[in-house]
Amino acid sequence: MQKLAEGGGAEDPTQLSASYFEEAAEVQAKIGELVVRVLDIVEERVSEKKELYNSQNAIRMLLIVLRGVLERYQEQPVLLDPHLETLVALLLNPIRQTVHSPRGAEPRACAALHPLFVVLYVLCKVRGPKTVVKFFSHEAADLEPVLAHLLATPEDFGIWESRYILLLWLSLVVMIPFDLKTIDSSEGVGETETTGSLVDSIVEQGKLFLGYAGKEYEGAAILLTRLLTRRDTVESHLAPFLNWCTTQALEIHTNVTTKSVFLLRGILYALCTIYKLGPRASLLPTLPALIPLCNTLADGPAGKSNSLIKKLIVKLTQRVGLCFLKPKLAVWRYQRGSRSLAANLAKVAVSNNVGVLPGAQGGIGGTNGLGDAMEEEEDDVPEEIEDVIQIMLNGLRDKDTIVRWSAAKGVGRISGRLSQEFATEIVASVIALFQEDTLPPTEGSSAPNLVAVSDSTWHGACLAVAELSRRGLLMPEWLEQVVPWVSLALSFDIKRGSHSIGAHVRDAANYVCWSFFRAYDPTLLLPHISVLSRRLIVSATLDREVNVRRAASAAFQEGVGRLGGSGGVGGVPNGIDIVTIADYFSVGNRNGAVMEVAVALAERLEYRFDLIQHIADVMIIHWDPAMRVLASRALYKMAFVDLDFVLKSALPGLIPKACSSDLAVRHGACLALGEICLAWSQIRKGSEGGQEAVAANQVKAVWWTDDEMENFIQPITAIVPNYPQNLLDTFGGDSTRTALCRLVECLSNANWPSTYRENPVTSEYDEFILSWWTLVHSSLENRDETVQSSAAAAMASLANYCWPHSVPGHEQLLSAFVEKVTQKLRFAKADAGSSGVSKQAVGQPRFGGRLVQQQPGSLLLDRFPRRGYALATGFLPKGVLQVYGATLIQSLVTLVQAVEGGGEDAEARRNAVTSIVGVYEGLGVDGIVQVISKDLFQESMESLFVGMEDYSVDSRGDVGSWVRESCFKAWPVVLPLFSRVNAKSVIYLLPETSARAVKGLLRQSVEKIDRVRETAGVALHQVIELSFSKDLGLLLDLGLAESSRADLRKALDGSSTGDLNWLNTATVYPRMVSLLKIDELRQDLLLGLVVSVGGISESLVRYSTYSFTEFVNSLPTMKESATSKVHPSLESLISDFVSMFSRPAYIKDRISVSLIEVTDVLIGCGAVAKIVEDDMDGVNKLFDAVKREVFKCRDVKKLLAAIKVFIGMATLPGTGASQVRQKALTQLVIYLAHTYPRVRRASSEGLYVALTTGSEGEMDDYLDSMELIEDVLLTTDWDLPVAQLKEPRAKVAGYLNVKLPVPIATNTL
Length: 1309
Description:
mainly alpha, 2 strands
């Protein structure tokens, strides 16, 4: 039962692949319990309101569990079949018993049985009503009782499941093989105008339920169909009902309302059901009136606006058309013979040897039906069929998918009952839909221009073609005309504004291909398989939408399975190998499909050119920027597959697109040009990197031909110098800059030809290099961070391109460059009072507080350049850093430690911290020893510690957290790097510095912000693991005791495997709080925990407070510690906590409220009470610390927190705490006349609580005056002005023997 109850919740993915109905026994037991409770209510065995409420609540819970379990089998409903009869019997038997009883016609019984109907409906929803209804009772005796029960059902929309199931039940009962008059109880007494016959009563109820908004209309339609198509009712009742339907539909057509639309939906659904299941002979006379009705409704307001109404109109038209035609199977249709893969392959091999196409003569074991068509009996086709076909064709153009799909199925069904001549005309009309609104091909293209076509029309045409081919109605001779259009549909993508349409068309085209492969003989498809397979591979790997990629993969797999494709045998060469690569799962991820699957398939020559061409022509100018970036990266890999084709086919078309006025075109072209040129250089060994590493001494100086220089290199070189400035400054300029920076980066990495590079002593740049630098510098000053990131990467590559080594001839250029960088990193110093930071704060780190304002006036203008250059500095190459590394580090350190004149720019500080690490990484061990002094290193480490304490806040929130996170990520890089430097016998990194870093990370690992806590925790785990790692060849000295490191490692165990989720406070805090036992870590860990325990997030406070109090309560007192030798003692922990009140102001101001709240937690958990007798001095210090913290304080939140502490202090037990209790009462009395009413109210309430809840002996001194004190506290309005409250306060002070402070007299002279 527990398993069943748990299963009723969220869906368990592991249960989707169940092999049997696992919970069958439990479900039956739950249904039995439900039946008992329902019958108790029905038979009124539960009378008291409380019992009734409990029973209804239990029923509600049972329904939740049963619904949850049964709905899990929605994807595997057949697993219920072995138990379905039992389940239905358990539910239906009590219903039938009640229905046949005298209570069956009572509304109360109907409402009480509703839970059983709900479970029956769930079974119908999961398994289908046709399957479930078969197990219903269908005796003649059930008819009138079930109808009576239905009539007695309350008109409550909440019990629609009951009405739906009852209608389904009636639809089964009315099929009994007896004349309904023989079981009609009203027949013996005679019909009246008010009652009517049984059939009339059912018909009237059916008409009523057709207008219901719920699923009752479906049950009513099935009931009316089964009733009115009986032999004994069809003649007398069918025609009147159809006339009623027509009349009502036309009335609704002229006056559409909300309710009438539901009735129209029910009428159309009922007509569709009748014309599907009714006898054709009886329906033929009614057909002529239906076609005009369908045309009228289709042109009406409901038929144009309501998708479901339109679908039902098309469906009804289809049913009417089928009723016009005799039900038969077209003998002329194409019939594929053998379905054996082995037989197909053998036949294909024979046909390949002989050189004939058996499919042209009827296929393998199949016929094209031409001879049979001549023998087919010609039937007269009514004129109305033309109207039916026209409605179907118009439905294929509809904007709603459900309408197009219904119309496509109608086209296929009706064509199957027509002669081949008429069916050929329908096929021609469907194919003509592809040609609607097509324009002549554009210049340089042979394919039609589809810019003006309707995607809905193409989607409907594809669905119709798929249906026709699947039914064998699309004869093989049509394939020549259809396949080119299907090939176009596979790549259908029309841009509309900032997006494109056509995914549904491509998906339908894949369905067409799937139908072709299933319907036609392999030899018939051999002339077309080359085109279709290439297009399917392109769609399966390069399409943006995952459903299209998977549909194409499935269609291709179907083709390989039907046509064969192993080695050189079969219709699809190497098809099986391709299917294993491009399977359902591999094409599911877009990046994997493009970068891995497509590249792997490009190794096959037959697919290579289509893949590369599609990337260069379609993907590279896609509306989605992510697709353009992915396409450029794919072209980089494709160049390694076939460089010649990329250079000859893709590259020439991309060069003129680089300056296109269309943002998508120029963005993708610039990205692609850069990637192709980089791959081109690496393949020709013109630069290092690529798929095969190239040694620096093997890099070729000339890796291009003369023709390539003229046709490719010179035009690409001229792109940036001649780039229109308006394209960089207008809308989309940021994206354009990003692409151009990537182009510059790639060309620089490719060692692009230049005079400057050929002459190592020149002091002048080429014109295009100057334009590159101009672009990079201007992009670094852009306000968009994405542009700055691209420009930073470009500057690193360009600097390495210009100064690969410290060449003397380049010193002047390099010096000018570094001077510009350091100038941009500087900030304008303002007066201490002008930037919103006090003079006392100058030189101090930024530890908290809200920034009053940012840079005034023009000083704001330099923040974006500062951010960009601070980010780019960390990417500079080693050649630059070896000369100016110390200068750059000094500038970055100054920026991180800045308070004024730009110091409030959190993004710049964050980037500076990242760049400090980047510079050290770029220099390496040898470069650090040569360039960086010990003092500069210590200063840079101090800047990281400053960044770890950055709690700056502005209108965006805690912006200092960005800086802190950047510092956290620095330590796992800096510590091992300088450990290697120390191994060079040059001591830079001191153990004290490492210990300070670890303690800082430990403090931040219990932060209140989830993101910050996770970053710090991961960094801490990496540092601890590095200290134990032997892979470095040295031991990282963290400056901690061995036992402390071991405890840290144990607490952090599971961080790398995911067992320790830093975002989950329930798992993090129990582990981290246990580290408070380590003396050298306690102070820093306490500082972090204080903020979390005193936080505001519910889950954070709950788990951090629980873990903290559990640890505190587990600590022994000093006396107990002396005997048990367990450390630390409770007194030492509280002493360390009290010392935190003496922290510097820039730290304490941020955590002062949290400190007071944690003090209240310590009092509340009983920790302070434990040390009252032994360490009263510590309790006094704790009280004095809180009192000092709120002295002259005007922060209401802090004052309210302090009042809770004073309340706790006033109730401390023991004689030793009398002095503290008196001082706490004094503070509470003083606050009775505080300036703020909230404080006065809280103080009066707290004083009352302290006096009334104190233990025996604590308040004995005030017992005589207790009633007087309570009277003053409870009767005084503490919201009155302070002047009026001084007298009541004085009374309370007198009763409590409290001395109020005397105001100091001021000299007014």
